[in-house]
Amino acid sequence: MGSIRHEFGLAFKSFSTASTIALSVVFSTFAGVLAGWWLDTRFFEGKTYPWLTILCFGFGLAGGVKNFMILTRRFSKEAEENAGRGESQSTEGPGGGKETGRQAIDAEDGSRGSS
């Protein structure tokens, strides 16, 4: 049984992971459009407008997709490592050592039957 704090922590971690990935895509695309607009209007004085904006939008979008792939791989690798270590549910046993959730349930059932 997970506590409400543990469940809230897992939900918050999932939300923060998803928002990190989404914001990286949005901000890199926005940075590309902003850079293209600046180049068009300020550097080339509007002679190339809107071509550099469109070109830099494409570069920003490509960077966003690359960030999406990198962050997705990184977060899935971290989730697999955490699952491999068994960090999902563990309680402290009677001897002070760590027990898995199933061992704790078996220990509780055994202690109830003896009284």
Structure notes:
The chain has 115 residues and is mostly helical. It has one domain. Helices cover 77% and strands 5% of the residues. The protein contains three helices and two strands. It has helices at residues 4-43, 51-85, 101-114; strands at residues 90-92, 98-100. Strands 1-2 form a two-stranded antiparallel sheet. Helix 1 (4-43) packs antiparallel against helix 2.
Q: What is the secondary structure topology, with strand pairs?
A:
Blueprint: H1 4-43, H2 51-85, E1 90-92, E2 98-100, H3 101-114
Antiparallel strand pairs: 1-2
Helix pairs in contact: 1-2
Concise account of the structure shown:
The chain has a two-stranded antiparallel sheet. The protein has one domain (about 5-90).
Please describe the structure with a list of short key phrases separated by commas or semicolons.
115 residues; mainly alpha; 3 helices
